[in-house]
Write a structure and sequence with these properties.
With 127 residues, the chain is α+β, with helices and mostly antiparallel strands. It has a single domain, classed as 7,8-Dihydro-6-hydroxymethylpterin-pyrophosphokinase HPPK (Alpha-Beta Plaits), CATH 3.30.70. It contains three helices and seven strands. It has helices at 22-35, 78-88, 99-104; strands at 9-11, 62-63, 68-69, 92-93, 97-98, 111-115, 121-126. The strands form three sheets. A three-stranded antiparallel beta sheet has the order 1-7-6. It has a two-stranded antiparallel sheet with strand order 2-3. Strands 4-5 form a two-stranded antiparallel ribbon. A hairpin with a 5-residue loop joins strand 6 (111-115) and strand 7 (121-126).
């Protein structure tokens, strides 16, 4: 899971409402990454300025060459699951199982919650 010799990173999970279907939504996310200098010709998990993933799309399950929903590795990443739990609470991830079961399966991973001066959460960082 961890990539050696890589700086810590800030991770966040957001919920959006959109009229876009999943593939156009993915293309929009890729375009935003490109605007921030993301180059997709580098090895997977190498350092980057911005990484936007489409984790879920309602209760849809999609397997295509361009896009897999739910995200194929989300259940292995505590830095994704923990903020998702804070946002949505426990729920069934389509085709995978309960969010809490996925979190429990991520033993040994560590996530540090970043807070502002008032103690409000601002992000999660994988260390």
């Amino acid at each position: 899971m961890e990539v050696p010799d890589q700086p810590d990173f800030i991770n966040a999970v957001v919920r959006v409402t959109t009229t876009l279907d999943p593939l156009p939504m993915l293309r929009c996310l890729l375009q935003i990454e490109g605007q921030f200098g993301r180059m997709r010709d580098r090895p997977r998990n190498s350092p980057r300025q911005l990484d936007l993933d489409l984790l879920l799309y309602g209760n849809e399950v999609l397997n295509s060459l361009e896009l897999t929903i739910p995200h194929p590795r989300m259940q292995q990443r505590l830095f994704v699951l923990q903020p998702l739990m804070e946002l949505e609470g426990n729920f069934e991830i389509p085709g995978i199982g309960s969010l809490i079961a996925c979190i429990n399966a991520c033993q040994g991973q560590r996530v540090t919650k970043l807070v502002d001066s008032d103690g409000k959460a601002i992000a999660s960082a994988d260390s």
